[in-house]
Amino acid sequence: MKNRLKVLRAERDWSQADLAVHLDVSRQAVNAIETGKHDPSLPLAFRIARLFDMPIEEIFHDEA
Amino acid sequence: MMKLDPSDLDQQPSDGAVLLRRGLIGVGGGLLLLFIASLMAGFSYAAISDGNFGLVFIAILAVMVLVFAGVAYAMWRFWPRGHNEPEAPRVKSARMILIAAMVISMPVGIILAASDDSANGVFSNAPITSVIAISLIALWLIPVPVLTWMWWRRVDEHEANAYRDGGFVAVHAYLFLTPAWWIASRAGWVPAQDPMIVFLAVCVVWCCFGFARKYF
Q1: pLDDT at position B83, please?
Q2: Cystine design at B189: which of B54, B67, B184, B216 (Cβ 3.0–4.6 Å)?
Q3: Smallest Cβ distance to B158: which of A14, A21, A38?
């Protein structure tokens, strides 16, 4: 699953560690989500959507 | 403008590479320092016993001290410093719980090592007293499971996945290793199965795979 996490945090001048603190996860988790190695659970996806004040489908895109 | 992010730079090592280098430098350098210190102690003891305190003794000891200092400096110089960045409270508390579990587990190893004089003291199958057995079992079955459960509740989903995947691979390692060893033992090819060796092998597979999934 592709996502716009890297672009969205860049727009806010956040590092991966900054975003990780906002989401209360590890920096490795943010890195894994950004690089597509880990698909976030629905609760975490909703947290990300709330943080960026956007619908989930504008952040995450199904590759199919 | 995007803030400089260490993970975005190709020349920056990954977290896993940093941890591996720390482990290699820490263990390798530590063993080397221990070896040089033992060498110095043995050499000094022999010199004191023989009463040889000449210039040669001082020169050799000085070279040993210099080598010791050189290794210590090299360890400090090449020690990967990491990214020094902010961490989520969940990550900090999970790490503290894990450290607490390891600290509580340490007496188990120390008591087991002290209970047998042989080289494989910790994993020896030699008999131990009831008092030691009850103490060790209580330590292993009461605080450690509570702490590991607390840790499991605190880790984020990425680490939980890495741990779960590592466990899955480890269970399969157990699934294949144990019957194969049992059959080989019955055929007389290998010694009888040692549960602690199987336990260790499963733990190593679990840790290695979980580490790789989390950091690489």
Answers
A1: 63
A2: B184
A3: A38
